[in-house]
Amino acid sequence: MADWIAPDWPAPPNVKAAATLRTGGVSQGAFSSLNLGSHVGDDPAAVAENRRLLRTALNLPAEPAWLNQVHGINVVEASAEGATSAVPPTADASVARGAGAVCVVMTADCLPVLFCDRDGTRVGGAHAGWRGLAGGVLGATIKALDVAPSQLMAWLGPAIEPDAFEVGDEVHEAFLKLAADNAAAFKPNARGRWQADLYQLARNELARLGVTAVYGGGFKCFADSERFFSYRRESRTGRMATLVWLTGPA
Predict the structure, then answer these.
(1) Which of 10, 51, 63, 74 is the most exposed place for a label (fewest CB within 10 A)?
(2) pTM score of the predicted model
(3) Burial class of residue 174 in the structure, from the number of CB atoms within 10 Å of its CB (0-12 exposed, 13-18 middle, 19+ buried)
(4) pLDDT tens digits, 103-118
(5) Which of the four CATH numbers 1.10.10.60, 3.40.250.10, 3.90.1150.200, 3.60.140.10 does domain 4-161+212-246 have?
């Protein structure tokens, strides 16, 4: 049975969300066991079974609206009908304004960010690695939700921890160009590079965008190999899913 984390945010009761763990599936080897990514070299039959297990365990209203993620900022409207398409849309975020569609992003170190409005009328999910964060994927998702940022809440899901996320000067400089307060999210290391805090960078960006109700964070995908996939730790590995959907009126 699929295993997952229930987000700790005060979302309206009709807003449902989950972040999967690596356990509870049928994949073998490097993809053990609940790999949900169809693009990483796993057995397609195992991935299909893992996705079936996920739908059953979470009692999803439809197949999640899987994306072809490219570390960009494109946002699409999730739909129950489009979720079964053989070719998923190329995007790194999706939004839904009604019951029936399931927004989903896949990660294995990058930061998944979920959104919902306080009235329980719309939800969204964004794939926010450093490139997406620096490029503006959170702002693009908020724009697509088309609601005042003050009426939104966000949840930060499982991502790589600062102690394991070493980056070069180009990443450091990209974020300093965005805002001076991003400097606090970087610490120099003994190799002349930087340890970056994706959670802090996301919180900074959300604050600039006007979203003050931010929850979650503090996960350690790299260190916690029992629960999480990590691309930086293993390279050949599976993908977890972070999902959000509406069940009906709030």
Answers:
(1) 10
(2) 0.97
(3) middle
(4) 999 999 999 999 999 9
(5) 3.60.140.10
